[in-house]
Amino acid sequence: MNAVLIASTVCLGVGTFGFRFAGASLKKKFRLSARVERVMLVAVVCLFAGLVLVAVRSLKGVALPVSHDQRALRWQGSSPGVRRRSSWLWWERLPSPRV
Amino acid sequence: MRSMKRTLVDVREQARQHPALFRDIALVCLADLLVAISFGAITVSSGLPFWLPMLLSVVVYAGASQFAFVGLIASGGNPFAALLAGLLINLRHVPLGFALADVLGERWARRLQGTYLMVDETVAFSMAQRDVHTQRLAYWVGGVCLFLCWNLGTVVGAVFGGYIEDTAVFGLDAAFPAVLLALLMPSLKDAGLLRAALLGGGVAVLSAPFVPAGVPVLIGLVGVLAAWPKSTQSAAGEQAVRQSA
Predict the structure, then answer these.
(1) Phi, psi of B119 (to 5 degrees)
(2) Under DSSP, is residue B91 helix (H, G, I), strand (E, B) or coil?
(3) I need a surface site. Which of A50, B116, B160, B184 has the fewest CB within 10 A?
(4) What is the DSSP letter of B212?
């Protein structure tokens, strides 16, 4: 199993290096038309836009949107005796409606 | 030794001249360090060999494909299927390499070393700079720092994996898309590129729940279609200008 893992890792490394080198060599070896160069530039921008949006979609940590209840807990402190901190958002300082 | 000292002095001088660039590189390095710690920890805690994350980080050095490779094998998948998935994800390096050809220079040794350090972040840092000198500086400084952070993080994750539960709680996972977006912004002033980015990004996000990790970014390449007519017109225009000249 270890030999297969090492072999597949090395193949992945060689293949990845090949892709990287092929892209860089393509432009050096061949004179490409302005249209192809433009398409490659657009492809890079699309890849980055996809990376940004897919990364944002899977954010965790402090950037994770929290529900109102969780936010309220965060501000008030989840255990008794924790001093309530006031929010800088004016609508969060409004008294909650009584039911 | 003397040359290394000189290089360090040069880098310090460049850091004074380009503080924003070095700050961005440091932020992304920190974010990548935490991601690499997660990678090492996840791999070892999945029951895979201790050496595998480190071997992957040195030999492959491409985060998304490493996660996909380990994830497939850990879930009982065939290593060959994991290899194919990794290669599919890394196909995006072809256009990235194309964009960087001028930055890597002419010398073979330099091109081989530079190719090895090519990841999304270094390409984005390089492309966001105006002149070739600054592009090279951003590429090499970013590339070396990211490589060191990624491998250091992998080792830390593999060794201390049992003690780390979730590095995402530090919130630094937001640094990667934030910096990448900031680097992408100058390109988005072009209406064609903006259309392509919106279409590609939208398709990538929509496809994310249905396909394995890493593949949505490749699917986002359909965004090229949004700029296709414009590119054809501009190419025809450029050709006409050349002919008339």
Answers:
(1) -135, 170
(2) coil
(3) B160
(4) -
Question: What is the per-residue pLDDT for A81?
Answer: 42
The pLDDT of B101-123, averaged and rounded, is: 87
Whether A85 has its CB under 8 Å from any CB of chain B: the answer is: no
Give the Cβ contact number of residue B40 at 10 Å.
Answer: 29
pLDDT by residue (tens digit) across B91-109?
888 888 888 888 888 788 8
A2-61 residues touching B, CB cutoff 8 A? 2, 4-13, 15-17, 19-28, 33-35, 38-61
Global confidence as pTM? 0.71
The predicted pLDDT at position A9 comes to 94
Q: A96 and chain B: CB distance < 8 Å anywhere? A: no
The Cα of A50 is separated from the nearest Cα of chain B by a number of Å equal to: 4
Please give the torsion angle defined by the CA atoms of residues B198, B202, B204 and B206, in that order, rounded to the nearest 10 degrees.
180
Least CB–CB distance from A54: residue in B92, B169, B216: B216
Q: How far apart, in whole angstroms, are the C-alpha atoms of residue A40 and residue A26? A: 11
